[in-house]
Amino acid sequence: MAISPHGETYVQVWIRSEGEQSVDRVIGGRYLDRLERRAGAWKIAKRHLVVDWHTLINMVSLPPKEGIDTWFSGSRDRNDPSCALLTQWAKSQGILADDPEAP
């Protein structure tokens, strides 16, 4: 009888709902996987989710961003602070041309 390998992977889920009740649901847990080899590659044959903890965060109760000069506001576009940092690094590596039009 062959023994199938198993794996454990930590997972964190953050779900934001906006509207009248703006809350974030945060869940921490683990995937317990049974693996099997198929066509020479390891694949997940069975997956179980174990929820170790969860919480709700009321968005209204978070501290305001104004007045906290050490915080940066993230965004899902080229205005995100990481975009400028990664662009600067790419230019220093010669990956991007030093173009004044580029973000």
Features:
flat, mainly beta, 103 residues
Instruction: Specify the biggest β-sheet.
Output: 3 strands, antiparallel
Spans of 5+ residues with little confidence (pLDDT < 50)?
A: none
Number of strands: 3
**Can you tell me the overall shape?**
flat
Order of helices and strands: EEEH
- Numbering strands along the chain, what is their spatial order in the largest sheet? 1-2-3
Mean pLDDT: 81
Summarize the structure.
This protein is 12% helix and 45% strand.
Structure in words:
This protein has a 3-stranded antiparallel β-sheet with strand order 1-2-3, with no helix packed on it. The mean pLDDT is 81. It is mainly beta. It contains 1 helix and 3 strands.
List strands and helices in order, with pairings.
Blueprint: E1 6-17, E2 23-38, E3 41-58, H1 81-92
Antiparallel strand pairs: 1-2, 2-3
